[in-house]
Write a structure and sequence with these properties.
The chain is of the alpha/beta class. The protein contains 12 helices and 11 strands. The strands form 3 sheets. A 5-stranded parallel beta sheet has the order 3-2-4-5-6, with helices on both faces.
């Protein structure tokens, strides 16, 4: 098996959370990506690419790794821009979405917009490296129809699902070997397959048609150690988020008319917490964050009792950090879970 070297791969990272952006930048450097550029959200990423286009200096970005939930422009809108805009540096560029919101609707939307891979948070060195190896070793041909442009959404050849028409044979499509022809087909029935050279595999040291490769074991171990050293910083980051949640609870209780916006802000913070805890050894933070995210989604209750449910989640997560409850927490973890469930049930009855 070939041993790959990522030092010639240029990656563009888009992440709105400064702490997570810093962690990911460090992880990518540990994996030996020599050139890592970054932006704090989708809008800034587009500005960067537009400036390159204006100055006719596209650079050589090979892969985009982007968070999904960001303001003012999220990862899905950035993905759509990359796949459709004339100013896009490369409409065929591998695009990896990274998110704690690996819900069905998000995954489907990303798939329909032409995502290359959808990586769920929490992430690990193993999961990040696995997705990049997948991109290098198993690139999917691009498909263009009047309704879709992006990687082939069928990862394996299989018979059509019942009632579904799919083009499965080369004789039914136009095969394209160049990136020059990227306009939409003119006829609704027309389908193009783009079969391009695997430039990334050549860059990392793999030959055309060669077996899949791997990263050096020592590099992966060093990256794991670096990620583990981020645990202490994560606790401080999480405490700051919990402080913000507490302030939002007080705001909700004192400004009843503004609760819709407050619960939207709470939901965004819950989304961050549910996506990060497991990465840094605190899966209970992710579990409690996911519960809070679900409790505060659009259409949720916004009474005083609902604010108390948010507070119960905050108290549970503070206990996890205070007592350094890592992993599943054993008996302590089970007690915290049971306590949160009891609090939710109690305040839900109060609302009734």
């Amino acid at each position: 098996m070939a041993v790959y070297n990522f030092d010639r791969i240029n990656i563009f990272l888009v992440e709105d959370n400064p702490y997570i952006r810093k962690v990911l930048e460090s992880l990518l450097h540990q994996l030996k990506f020599a050139n890592v550029k970054s932006a704090p959200n989708g809008a800034k990423a587009i500005e960067y690419f537009q400036d390159l286009h204006k100055n006719k200096a596209f650079g050589d970005i090979d892969i985009i790794l982007s968070d999904l939930v960001m303001t003012p422009l999220n990862g899905l809108l950035l993905l759509r821009w990359i796949r459709t805009a004339k100013e896009s540096p490369n409409r065929f560029m591998p695009f990896v979405l990274l998110s704690g919101a690996a819900d069905h609707e998000y995954v489907k939307a990303a798939r329909d917009l032409g995502v290359t891979e959808f990586m769920a948070k929490p992430f690990s060195v193993a999961s990040v490296s696995r997705y990049f190896l997948q991109i290098v070793d198993r690139p999917r041909q691009f498909v263009a129809t009047q309704e879709y442009f992006g990687p082939d959404r069928r990862r394996k050849s299989s018979p059509p699902a019942s009632g579904e028409r799919r083009v499965t044979e080369d004789k039914d499509v136009s095969i394209v070997y160049s990136t020059d022809k990227v306009v939409k087909p003119k006829k609704p029935s027309e389908v193009w397959y783009f079969r391009l050279n695997n430039r990334l595999k050549e860059k990392v040291g793999g030959g055309a048609g060669s077996e899949p490769g791997e990263l050096p074991t020592d590099i992966l171990l060093e990256a794991e150690e670096q990620l583990e050293r981020s645990v202490a910083d994560f606790a401080d980051w999480a405490r700051d988020y919990l402080k913000q949640l507490s302030q939002l609870c007080e705001k909700a209780l004192s400004h009843v008319d503004g609760r819709v916006k407050v619960f939207e802000d709470i939901n965004l913070l819950a989304h961050e917490l549910r996506g990060q805890g497991g990465t840094f050894g605190y899966p209970l933070i992710s579990q409690f964050g996911k519960s809070l995210y679900r409790s505060t989604r659009e259409g949720c209750g916004k009474e005083d009792s609902d604010v108390e449910i948010v507070k119960a989640h905050i108290d549970s997560m503070r206990a996890v950090l205070r007592d350094k409850v890592v992993g599943d927490g054993g008996e302590i973890g089970q007690a915290l879970l049971a306590g949160l469930e009891a609090a939710i049930k109690r305040h839900s009855k109060t609302e009734e």
